[in-house]
């Protein structure tokens, strides 16, 4: 009986090590907001108070940011998810960390994407707001320096966007569980 107990203990230990060693992919949320102009009253800034972390070293002025808020430019390229596309195994997790100076979201949305919760950005980009972005429980804010972990995704394609900056998109492809041979280009 004692050997069965030891065997079960060994199995639990190896199973726990396997679970804790599940790979975690990473996505960084990036922006380059200049706090001096982003936190300024109109006409220099948006007049929304402190929206860019005051000690953040971004370098893109609010004017430069605003110049790219058109349907053809579709937002400033410094505001992005890095990596915009991931392939993961069913047991893998994704850690999303805000490395920018502004608040962002990482919200699962339909594959058509759409507009976020900031009407002036939706209007400038010609986007219709998505319901997912209006619900704070589905689109919680990730403050600068904070992280969230995405896990237990179903097999298939998952689409994410920032509901504050709706041009920020990411796609996570969860491979079929029986495809254990493919590991993002390394075996």
> How would the global form be characterised?
globular
CATH homology superfamily of the domain at 23-31 and 78-174: Cupredoxins -  blue copper proteins
Low-confidence stretches: 7-19, 180-187
Distance between the termini: 40 Å
What is the number of strand segments?
8
The CATH C-level name of the domain at 23-31 and 78-174 is Mainly Beta
Structure classification: alpha/beta
The radius of gyration is 20 Å
Overview in brief:
With 187 residues, the protein is of the alpha/beta class.
Notable characteristics:
21% helix, 8 strands, disordered C terminus, four-stranded mixed β-sheet, globular, Immunoglobulin-like, 187 residues, alpha/beta
Detailed description of the structure:
The chain has 187 residues and is of the alpha/beta class. It has a domain at 23-31 and 78-174: Cupredoxins -  blue copper proteins (Immunoglobulin-like, Sandwich), CATH 2.60.40.420. The chain has five helices and eight strands, in the order αβααββββααβββ. The protein has helices spanning 2-20, 35-38, 62-67, 119-125, 131-134; strands at residues 24-30, 80-82, 85-88, 93-98, 107-109, 147-150, 156-161, 169-174. Strands 2-1-4-6 form a four-stranded mixed sheet, with no helix packed on it. A four-stranded mixed sheet has the order 3-8-7-5, with no helix packed on it. Residues 7-19 and 180-187 have low confidence and may be disordered.
